[in-house]
Design brief:
By secondary structure, the protein is of the alpha+beta class. The chain has nine helices and four strands; from the N terminus they run ββααββααααααα. The protein has two domains: 85 residues, no CATH class; 126 residues, no CATH class. Helix content is 48%, strand content 14%. Strand 3 and strand 4 form a beta hairpin. Helix 5 runs antiparallel to helix 6.
């Protein structure tokens, strides 16, 4: 299976794995985590760039081929080989990455306050730290309420179905919270760009597994433009942002 992964100028992924053309890795014992250790592998160059924690400047993009995948989960593999370095890296500034994250989360999360805030942020109507802080406090309050429900379930005062719902909402709210925190950081002048990039990447960590009903490639194309998200020939130019 063809995958793509972004690295820094030295060829290191967001988890510090060194990537170079021709590298072969086999690790049957780490069947579930082999590709995850590369961090942010994706089926499409544009998607790989959008979900990576690597800063856009001086980044590199590699094509990886994985095989011996687990039945029913193409994200799990026992082997991979780094096939080639891509001649063109789609340009995705942090603003574009956060826009993509919010578009994805809007498809998953039902929280009204978060959805309204995300729509305003995407439309550039309100990207203030104050607006993000307000939503963050709402989400943190809901997390506290979920924790109380889990405690009740542990004492048998709540049903198993309630607990399953809580776990699902907890994961969604955590991603929403990370996205809001990224927006808070980005709203402050002089913010640590690496911290913003990591916060966005945490929001999108293994997003293809939890957002199986979301058309990630279409959203990536919407953010990057039709020409940037695909594999390019060596002489192809980048689409203008």
């Amino acid at each position: 299976m063809k995958k793509y992964v972004l690295t820094n100028e030295a060829g290191d992924t967001g988890t510090g794995v060194k990537v170079k053309v021709g590298k072969f890795v086999h690790d049957a014992a780490q069947h579930a985590a082999l590709l995850a250790r590369l961090t942010s592998c994706a089926e499409n160059p544009g998607l790989a760039v959008l979900v990576s924690p690597i800063l856009p400047e001086n980044s590199r993009l590699f094509q990886v081929h994985s095989w011996n995948v687990a039945v029913g989960d193409p994200g799990q593999a026992q082997n991979y080989t780094v096939i080639k370095e891509m001649p063109v890296v789609p340009q995705a500034m942090l603003e574009m990455r956060l826009t993509f994250a919010l578009l994805v989360l809007k498809e998953m999360i039902t929280n009204r306050e978060f959805r309204i805030w995300a729509e305003n942020w995407i439309a550039n109507k309100d990207r203030s730290a104050e607006a993000a802080t307000k939503v963050r406090k709402i989400l943190e309050g809901e997390q506290e309420a979920s924790a109380e429900l889990e405690e009740l379930a542990a004492w048998g005062a709540s049903s198993t179905d309630d607990l399953k719902t809580v776990h699902k909402l907890d994961e969604q709210d955590q991603r929403a919270l990370q996205a809001v925190q990224a927006a808070e950081l980005a709203a402050n002048r002089g913010a640590d760009q690496e911290a913003v990039s990591r916060a966005i990447a945490n929001t999108l960590l293994e997003i293809s597994k939890v957002a199986s009903k979301v058309d990630l490639l279409t959203l990536a194309t919407r953010v990057l433009g039709a020409n940037q998200g695909q594999e390019s020939e060596p002489d192809a130019g980048l689409a203008a942002n």
